[in-house]
Amino acid sequence: xxTTEDKVYxxxxxxxxxxxxxAAIIPIILMVTSSFTDNNTLIQNGYSFFPKKWSAYAYEWIxxxxxxxxxxxxxxxxxxxxxxxxxxxxxTTTLAYGISRQGLPFRGAITFYIFFTMLFNGGLVPxxxxxxxxxxxxxxxxxxLVPGLLMNAFNVLLMKSYFVSSIPGEIxxxxxxxxxxxxxxxxxxxxxxxxxxxxxxxxxxxIAYWNDWNNGFIYLVKRTDLYSIQNLLNRLMxxxxxxxxxxxxxxxxxxxxxxxxxxxxxxxxxxxxxxxIVIVYPFIQNxxxxxxxxxxxxx
Length: 299
Hints:
This protein is mainly α and 299 residues long. It has helices at residues 4-35, 39-45, 57-100, 107-119, 124-134, 142-145, 153-166, 169-177, 182-193, 195-211, 214-219, 229-245, 251-258, 264-292. It has one domain: MetI-like (MetI-like fold, Orthogonal Bundle), CATH 1.10.3720. The longest helix is centred in the N-terminal third of the chain and has 44 residues, at 57-100. The protein is globular and about 70 Å long.
C-alpha cells in the first residue's frame, strides 16, 4: 500500500528530476534555435527561443565553404570513436576481469598501480615527449587514438567492482566444474552478464573520443587533414577570431569576414558537434534496460 509519505517523496523526486532535465535540455534548445537565427537579428536582439528572423545561413556557410573538409572530419571522428571505443572496451574488460579474480598473482599490487594513476601522472611535457619520441604518434592517426583515452583507470576499477559485486560466484564455479577456462568464462558468462556496465563504459568512452580535441591540438601539427570534427570546428573558430581581431586585414579579407555569420556560426558548430551523440544515445540507452535482466542466479 502506497502511503502519503511515499506519494510526497515520489512527487518531490519527480519534481527534482524534471528540473534537472530542463536544466540540461533548455541550453541545447537555445543553442539550436540560435544557430537557425539570422546573424544580425541575434546581434541586435540577443539569444531567444523565438527569434524574429530565422536563417540557416550559418549551416550553409559551414558546408558550402568547407563541405569536403567537414565531411572528412566527420568520417575521421566516426572511425576514431568506433575503433577507440572497441579497443578501450577490450582492454578495460580483460584487465578488470583479471584483477577481479581472487587467485591472480600480485592482484593487490596491480590494483594499487591502476588506482595510483588516478592520483598522479607524469605531467604534460613528459607525456608529450614519451608519445612523440618513444611511440611516434605525432602527426598520425594514433595521436588521436592512443594518448589518454585508450584506457581509463576509473573505468577499469568501476568494471572490476561490478564483476565482484554483481556476478554471482556460483555461476563461475559451475562453469569451472564443467571444464571451462578463464577465457571461456569471460566470453560466455562474464561479458553477457556485464552488459549494463559495458554499455555504460562504452557510452563514456565514445563520448570522450567524439568530444576530444586536445589530442589533435597537441599531436597533429602538420597533418591537419587528420583533424576530427571537434578539431576542425575549433580551427574554424580560431580563424574567424583571427580575422575579426586583425585590424590590418586586407580588403578581400574584410569583405570575406562580412559574409561570415560570426555569432550564429558558433552555435551551428556546437550543434554539429553534439548531433551524432544525440542521435546515437537513445540506442545505447536501451542496453541499460536489456542488460539488467541478464544477471542473477536462476533457481
